[in-house]
């Protein structure tokens, strides 16, 4: 890492869900970022005993006025200059989006080149699993101010208002979504029996793909957003960050699946975050925004 990067603000504010058991939301993102050397300020948007996919359970959402007050405290914290990025994920209610946007503005006012990465956690192939107003708040308030967004394909479909059955349609939707860089997880793959992470920015269209593992545990999107952010903050190029992030997350997923785990076992596979050994295919695609005649 260069001296310039080493001296840059390195703390990350992560605003997402907290579960007592499991490796989703803040539990996944904070572990990954701290393991990779980044201090984290963690803000819970909702507190749960476990992921709702494991069954109904108590759901504690901070009263909105208290949540906004806490976020305002962070905006005026004397240590705000330590912060080099904000990552937002699952929101407990629609009103939290405005507080997240305000905090992002305060961080960028203090550190103009700070990054905001929006993981618009709202649904999967089964449809939305947050109220529609919460999804709308993420789409309309947070996506437009993001430097990087990391929706899965189904979330991008909902925001685009159309099915995305192939790479061409997925790339077109990503290009229209707004943020300068879009990392679409669960994207269509070119390899048979595979799945991919598609990265589209102003210059490149990249696809990192690996074989599909059925019935994966939850938390892969949270982990991908955090690891990719760490790679970018460490100075990696977009292509290298995409490939190494995909390799790390796939390796952890494959090892968890082999053990029969119902949650990602990050503490067991922490080494995979830093030095993944899994092989993933990286493809350079034709950028949909470029003139084919150029």
How would you sum up this structure, described in words?
By secondary structure, the protein is α/β, with parallel strands linked by helices. It has ten helices and eleven strands. The protein has helices at 3-7, 26-35, 64-75, 96-110, 132-142, 153-160, 167-176, 220-233, 238-259, 270-274; strands at 11-19, 40-48, 83-88, 115-118, 123-124, 127-128, 148-149, 181-187, 194-200, 205-211, 281-285. The strands form two sheets. It has a nine-stranded mixed beta sheet with strand order 2-1-3-4-7-8-9-10-11, with helices on both faces. Strand 5 and strand 6 form a beta hairpin. Helix 3 (64-75) packs parallel to helix 4 and helix 8 runs antiparallel to helix 9. The longest helix is centred in the C-terminal third of the chain and has 22 residues, at 238-259. The chain is globular. The model is unreliable at 1-5 (pLDDT under 50).
Note the topology.
Blueprint: H1 3-7, E1 11-19, H2 26-35, E2 40-48, H3 64-75, E3 83-88, H4 96-110, E4 115-118, E5 123-124, E6 127-128, H5 132-142, E7 148-149, H6 153-160, H7 167-176, E8 181-187, E9 194-200, E10 205-211, H8 220-233, H9 238-259, H10 270-274, E11 281-285
Parallel strand pairs: 1-2, 1-3, 3-4, 4-7, 7-8
Antiparallel strand pairs: 5-6, 8-9, 9-10, 10-11
Helix pairs in contact: 2-8, 3-4, 4-5, 6-7, 8-9
């Amino acid at each position: 890492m260069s001296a310039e990067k080493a001296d840059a603000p390195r703390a990350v504010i992560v605003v997402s869900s907290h579960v007592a058991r499991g490796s989703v939301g803040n539990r996944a993102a904070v572990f990954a970022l701290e393991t990779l050397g980044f201090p984290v300020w963690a803000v819970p948007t909702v507190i749960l005993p476990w992921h709702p996919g494991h069954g109904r359970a108590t759901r504690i959402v901070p009263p909105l006025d208290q949540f906004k007050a806490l976020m305002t405290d962070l905006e005026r914290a004397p240590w705000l200059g330590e912060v080099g990025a904000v990552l937002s994920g699952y929101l407990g209610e629609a009103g939290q989006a405005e507080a997240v946007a305000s905090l992002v503005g305060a961080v960028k006012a203090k550190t103009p080149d700070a990054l905001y990465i929006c993981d618009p956690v709202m649904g999967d192939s089964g449809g939305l699993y947050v109220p529609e107003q919460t999804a709308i708040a993420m789409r309309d308030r947070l996506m437009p101010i993001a430097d990087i967004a990391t929706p899965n394909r189904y979330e991008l479909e909902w925001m685009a208002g159309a099915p995305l059955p192939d790479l061409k349609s997925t790339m077109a939707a990503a290009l229209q979504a707004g943020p300068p860089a879009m990392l679409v997880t669960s994207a269509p793959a070119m390899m048979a029996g595979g799945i991919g992470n598609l990265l589209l920015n102003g210059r490149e269209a990249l696809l990192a793909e690996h074989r599909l593992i059925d019935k994966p545990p939850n938390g892969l999107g949270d982990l991908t957003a955090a690891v990719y952010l760490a790679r970018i903050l460490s100075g990696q190029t977009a292509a290298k960050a995409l490939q190494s992030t995909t390799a790390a997350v796939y390796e952890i997923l494959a090892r968890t699946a082999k053990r029969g785990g119902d949650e990602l076992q990050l503490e067991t596979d922490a080494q995979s975050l830093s030095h993944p050994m899994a092989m993933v295919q990286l493809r350079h695609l034709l950028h949909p925004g470029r003139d084919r005649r150029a």
